[in-house]
Every structure is written in C-alpha cells, then in structure tokens.
Sequence to fold (278 residues):
Amino acid sequence: MIWRARKKNIDLSRQGLILGILNVTPDSFSDGGQHVGGEAAVLHGMKLIEEGADIIDIGGESTRPGALPISTAEELARVLPVVQALRRKSDILLSVDTYKAETAHCCLEEGADIINDITALRGDPKMLSVAAETKAGLVLMHMQGTPHTMQQKPHYTSVSTEVRDFLLRRAQIATSSGVDPVSIALDPGIGFGKNFSHNRELLSALSVLTGGEYPVLVGVSRKSFLSVTSGARSVESRFWPGVALTSFCREKGVRLFRVHEPAPHREALKMTEAILLP
Fold:
C-alpha cells in the first residue's frame, strides 16, 4: 500500500508509520503550553524525530473537548514558524493539523507535506481545492459535532457503520474534486464525539475501514477513555494502555499512528510486525 504526500511515495506495505504529535497550543488536553514558542516547539520536534517519528504532526489549535476555535492569523502565528524551522533542519515529512485552508496553504508553501483535517473538509470550503492543487497527503477524520460540542451526549445507531460510511463519502467528494485517491488516509476519530462504548466498538471493528483502499490512521495517545480500565485519572496513567492499543490496531490493519511518545510505540510496532509479517 502506497500513500502519496505531494511527490513523496510512502510505503505502508509492511511497516506502520508514527506521527509524532507537536502541539503548539497553550490549552491542549495533555500537554498544553509545553511547546508554545518557536524554539521550544522546534526542539521538541527534533526530539520526536530522534525518538523514531516518521512524520511530525504540528497543530496550533486545541481540539480537546470543549475547546473554542481560534482565528487563522493566530493559528498561523503559532504553526508557520515551526514548519519553517523544522523544514530547514530536517527532510522529515511534516503534517499540519488544521481545518483552515489558508493555514494549510501557507504551511504547504513552506515545505509541509500533509493536511490533517479533523473536519474531513467540512470546516473550510476552500480546503478541498488546496488539497487537490497541492497534491498534499490528506487525512480525513470523523467527528460528531465540533470540539466545543462533541462530547455532549454523542449518539449513534451503529458507530462503526456510520463512521465508515461518512469517511467513504468524504473521500469520494475529495476524489471527485481532483484529489488523488492515493493521497487520502482515513481516521475514525477515536474520542471525537464518542463515549467509551463508541470508542470500544470502533476499535473492535477497525477491519471495516482497514479492509478498503485507503490507509487508516488512529490516534489514541493520552486520551481520557484509556483511563477507564484502571480508574486512574492522570494523563500519565494512560501511557501503557495507549501502547497496548498500538499493537492491537496494527494487528487490525492500521498503518498510521499518531502518538506523543514515538519510541515505545515504535517498539510495539516492531514486535507486532515481526509476528504478523515474518
């Protein structure tokens, strides 16, 4: 399986890839404020690379439950200098976690490769043309509601079916408007407008997505539902459950993993793939 980001062909046939999360926000749920400011963010980005990240996913707007949107100008002020600095230092793939077309376009102009859109192209009508014209890699994510409202009593008749159908519809809209199908990846949006039961069903039924033509990305790192089995509330308590789910998701056919700590997830992938793909 090949995933294309601009002119780069990414081979996903055997090895899963890790997106290292670089939040440059003051209010993210797990690391808000730790990497705000150009120098701190760039240093952390380089650390993620050293720890084994294949892609750096840079986000300037918090998408934690209850978060409110920020302006494009504010998002660009946070994200663009980090993209520029990391591109000067490394040729690693750079992803921009945004649903704003102007932010995506400016970052792609400065060397980013991938658009990671939590709204699946619904947040900005201009994003579709940006994705098509730049030939960027494009991650389409499912979310019920918005970050501000998504955890207010989410409801589904069949979450796995509804998420699959939604993502395939969004992919069809993208391809019919000029986006190369090989550039698209799908993200079921674990924790975005979903309670524990919804997340559990989605994870159990990942094969409804991974059996198709598009690579699947999963991001569970540090999310609150990971605390359900232990009863602990701290972010730190979610670490090992997240690593365990990386192995589980790889066995289910997931190829892309969005995480905060690349090294242990890389080791989990190596062992899982050694068993799956001798």
